[in-house]
Amino acid sequence: MNERQKKRKEMEAVVVMIEDVVRNHQQNCITMFNMVRTMLQTWNNGHEGRPPITYSMTTKIPDQVRHMDRLVGLTDADCINNLRMDRNAFGRLCRILRDRCGLVDRRYVRVEEQVAMFLSTLAHHKKTRVVGFDFIRSGHTVSHYVHEVLRGVIHLHSILFVEPSPVDESCEDPRWKWFQGCLGALDGTYINVCVSMTDAPRYRTRKGHIATNTLAVCDRFLRFVYILPGWEGSVADSRVLRDAVTRPNGLKVPKGAYYLCDNGYANSEGFLTPFKGVRYHLKEWGPTNQRPKTPQELYNMRHTMARNIIERAFAVLKMRWGILRSASFYPIETQTRLIMACFLLHNFIRGEMQVDPMELELDGGNDGLAGDQQGIVDEHGDVQYVDSVESSPAWNQKRLDLANYMWRNL
Asked: Among the entry's GO cellular component annotations, what is one (predicted)?
């Protein structure tokens, strides 16, 4: 067999192999087509007679309108129980967010419903899915508008934080009249947060909770003047205060004025603390305990009675907003902003509602909003502020002189 015949046989073998491949491919395609056709026929037979499934936003609108009417259209009690403010305050908040923060009605979600979903989340710490079920919305819709309203509320910080007024000679409140020049009280509070495993040690408090240490300053009327959220729970209160005072837009304490604070801080210019080693807390001054025997004890008793305003402010705040009582699963940056929003809305409610139901529920008392509520006015731009927090012999002497003055006028 010559070379030419060999090549011819090889070419014939290749042609036969290609024909086999094509024939097998055609058979496979026919088999697959028959299988798909059989499956479609089976599916059509199983669904024969069933109505087509359709989805329409408009079918949900009547139920959504009825839910909003139940929240804000019937009684103040329902509105307060669900959204923590009465109907007038809710309407004014929506109007402010429209006018100042750019919130607008969307095609299917009005501003009122956006704000209601946000307040419901803060008040009861509901998960997005639960709020979506209540408002007949998707979880994505709820999450979107929670963040939209959150940005708007944070934008209102310049008008919702108050300017404190110092105690003057005309003050008749027995808790405050001894502390002329005092602007209010400050303290730190732990608010539980959810962070990553790598960050957890930094946020762990002395009691083992994962929390953020939030500095808060309030005036005599349970209204917050300044807050600094976001510091880790392991950080000392004094360090947080130093950071607040030295920030460019931080806590401003005019020279000569001061806030009451506990012994977690240094007795320094602008911050008056109790005497150490002397009984101090309110429970130590109960009706069955002895009366003060020294000027230092008398000073500490009156100091704690006045400074208790910040503890009451924290109690009212956490009773109002359930999201502050347990950790949420938002990113830590969002959790910090939600904390600030709770403080701002607390001030808004205190300013808009004549009676704060949470304060009445706390102990039946009422600090009210009566009295001089005008802030410190810097007419000439020459007010000097405290710019450091260091223990001061001059303020130690000021504290001792105040204690002796109280003792002489007992």
From this structure: nucleus
pLDDT at 243 over 70: yes
Selection from 19-28, 80-89, 209-218 with the highest mean pLDDT? 209-218
Strand positions, DSSP E, 279-362 = none
- pTM for this predicted structure: 0.79
Q: Are 299 and 189 in contact (CB under 8 A)?
A: no
Per-residue pLDDT reduced to its tens digit, 164-222: 999 988 888 889 999 999 999 999 999 999 999 999 999 999 999 999 999 999 999 99
Both tokens of 275, joined, read 């005497």
Q: Half-sphere exposure of 111 toward its Cβ, with a 13 Å CA cutoff?
A: 17
The strand pair at 211-218 and 182-192 is best described as antiparallel
- Coil, strand or helix at 227: strand
Q: What distance in Å separates the CA atoms of residue 66 and residue 391, rounded to the nearest whole number?
A: 60
Q: Between the CA of residue 21 and those of 17, 35, 190, 297, what are the distances in Å?
A: 6, 21, 74, 103
- Considering all CA atoms of the chain, what is the largest pairwise distance in Å, rounded to the nearest integer? 136
Count of helix runs (H) and strand runs (E) in the chain: 14, 5
DSSP 372-402: -------SSS---B-----B-HHHHHHHHHH
Orientation of helix 128-135 relative to helix 139-155, angle to 10°:
100
User: What amino acid is encoded at 289 in this protein?
Assistant: N
Distance in angstroms (rounded) separating the CA atoms of residues 127 and 150: 16
